[in-house]
Amino acid sequence: MAAVKETVRTVEGLGEGYAHGFVTDIEQEFAPVGLTADTVRYISAKKNEPEWMLEWRLAAFERWLAMDEPDWAKLNFPKIDYQAARYYAAPKTDGPKSLDEVDPELLAMYEKLGIPVREQAVLAGVEGAPKYAVDAVFDSVSVVTTFKAELAKEGVIFCPISEALRDHPELVRKYLGTVVPVTDNYFACLNSAVFSDGSFVYVPPGVRCPMELSTYFRINASETGQFERTLIVCDKGAYVSYLEGCTAPMRDVNQLHAAVVELVLMDDAEIKYSTVQNWYPGDKDGKGGIYNFVTKRADCRGDRSKVSWTQVETGSAITWKYPSCVLRGDGSSGEFYSIAITNNFQQADTGTKMIHLGANTKSRIISKGISAGHSSNTYRGLVSAHAKALGARNFTQCDSLLIGKDCAAHTVPYIEAKNAQSTFEHEATTTRLSDDQLFYVMQRGLSQEEAVQLLVNGFVKDVLQQLPMEFAVEAQKLVAVSLEGSVG
Amino acid sequence: MLSIENLHVTVAEKAIIRGLSLNLPAGEVHAIMGPNGAGKSTLSYTLAGRDGYEVTEGSAVLDGVDLLSLNASERAAEGIFLSFQYPLEIPGVPALTFVRAALNAQRKSKGEPEISAPDFLKRAREVAGSLKMDFEMLRRGLNVGFSGGEKKRMEIFQMAMLQPRLAILDETDSGLDIDALRIVAEGVNALRAADRAMLVITHYQRLLDYIRPDRVHVLAGGKIVASGGPELALELEREGYDRYSKAAA
């Protein structure tokens, strides 16, 4: 067990290993502390929103007041004081503008994070890397969006949702809240009332979006929550690949992040949605870190539409997140590929829901959970086939890897078939990173740390392969950093 | 090359090796034979530096380097290779990736540059060919779903790729049919060299028909109780270990 003990020690050093923990010193304006109808009005006014949007928010706020925080997840945390946080923080400028007008401090920060906010920039070290467009959200506002003009030539709309509310209100109004209704759950309802920014994407019929789209979320201000809202609409026969990344400074106070992501797919549309989630996880004693309560759902409205969620979850003190697929169109399909890593005192309760409504719908779930330190990692999933979903098929594979002896892995799959012509397969394994394997690899000359990385990378390979190539490399590094010292 | 003096090893507070001494000069192949429970695998794990194998007394020195002060990966970099009795499965890591990582880790510790991809592949193809291995097997997860014989062949493949100074073959014949045994033995014989020593640990004499040892040692009760030429293995095959086990007890 000596090797594992050392691993655990290494994991304990992780807090210092978080590379994005710096704070950017920039002049900001804040909403007053606390949450009232006035806070909602303040945010809406800041965004110059149409009247209907404010009413929508206020209605959501009213409903939220009457709701209770859910307690069914396998998560333990002190009660959140929603009146202690701020719900809006923004650099002192008015929304996104040309790059020349963006505060150089901000540009320096994005450079430090390795995020290309200048259009000529490509991913460092990748020769001939394909272009990808970026929407950079800093606390409550989007500060810059790249390649908008080039995308517009194809008819693709990619902009901050606050801008879409002004420039394309009919589109936003038509789809907002139709996938995740306002009252879907406590956190989605809160988001509906106070969301500040996020990305909006519309891909017109038959268009294959010419580049990867991505949004980088950065929480910078202290005592401030981030509530972003993303809406992606992929029209008939259209395709888009979208990636979301997130980081936050190291702080010893927990911060709330409650996002909503809605995807709408028409006939033959396809969306690939990837997340590399690297919020600050808290220190080695479990102090600080982001509380991450996120609702993500795709609605496959059209026949033969196809959605795939890929997530690499390494950060957050608490993760509560179930990217789901409503397979409404006949022959539509949903995929969920997940790597969730918890270390120290992190807690993750994550998984997916595959709701088969249409005939001959297909879904596939590959979940890889890795727990180290004193962490707890739960896969929670639902696969259901409704009466009309004849010929529905699902394949689920849930693998858990334990490193050390103080961590926990749980698998909670729910399966419901309401017709007799559905085929569901479920496979699950739980393994401990064994001293035998570590010794075998080390005997060949790899250090303990390299040995753990090799074994873990082998374990998550099926999922990493699903990420766009450039991000797979990034994610692989992130996996290594997250478990640094977990053996060694 | 390898010099072991009065080695005592305990595992889980139980004394397994009790005063073992052995001299293995460069260029020679020595066989260690012995009954079950004599401490054969403990000796191989101890030399390779496995945690939990506690040396309470004695020394093990490889060309002047004190092995006991090094961890497993440092010993590998010093040129120690252990062919496992039960090779481990590494899901998701192809054999090629694994061996290349190992080779580069060893090179790095010696301050040498990484091997280039074309050089590595060329060498891998040659070695796989000589061991009559299907090259596609090297692209699959290491040892995952392999038969016992395939796993042993993969061990010899790794050994040939890593070119160790001291190879320890722990029960390499177990799980092999006669054809596989011949191929594996040929692979081992091809690696015999003036600057390399091998320790062949086996329960049966059979393997030694193919890999001719220079010396044979009988391990019983945690120490070497008899040493001789290849004829000693034949004698053991005829008469069994009883005599030595009793003597050790």
Furnish the topology, listing elements before pairings.
The complex is a heterodimer of chains A (488) and B (249).
Chain A: H1 2-12, E1 28-30, H2 37-46, H3 51-65, E2 89-91, H4 104-113, E3 132-138, E4 141-145, H5 148-153, E5 157-160, H6 161-167, H7 169-175, H8 186-194, E6 199-203, E7 212-218, E8 229-234, E9 239-247, E10 254-257, E11 260-265, E12 270-277, E13 289-300, E14 306-313, E15 318-321, E16 324-327, E17 333-342, E18 347-356, E19 362-371, E20 376-385, E21 393-402, E22 408-417, E23 423-432, H9 435-443, H10 448-464, H11 469-482
Chain B: E1 2-11, E2 14-24, E3 29-33, H1 40-48, E4 53-62, E5 65-66, H2 72-77, E6 80-83, E7 90-94, H3 95-109, H4 117-130, E8 141-142, H5 148-162, E9 166-170, H6 178-190, E10 197-202, E11 215-220, E12 223-228, H7 231-239, H8 242-248
Parallel strand pairs in B: 3-10, 3-11, 6-9, 9-10
Antiparallel strand pairs in B: 1-2, 1-4, 4-5, 7-8, 11-12
Task: Summarize this entry quickly.
The complex is a heterodimer of chains A (488) and B (249). Helix content of chain A is 24%, strand content 34%.
Helix content of chain A: 10-25%
Strand coverage percent of chain A: 25-35%
- Helix and strand element order of chain B: EEEHEEHEEHHEHEHEEEHH
Helix fraction bin of chain B? 25-40%
Q: Write down how many β-strands of chain A occur, each being a DSSP E stretch of 2 or more residues.
A: 23
| Tally of alpha and pi helices of chain A | 11
Kindly report the greatest chain-chain contact and the residue count on each side.
A-B, 27 and 32 residues
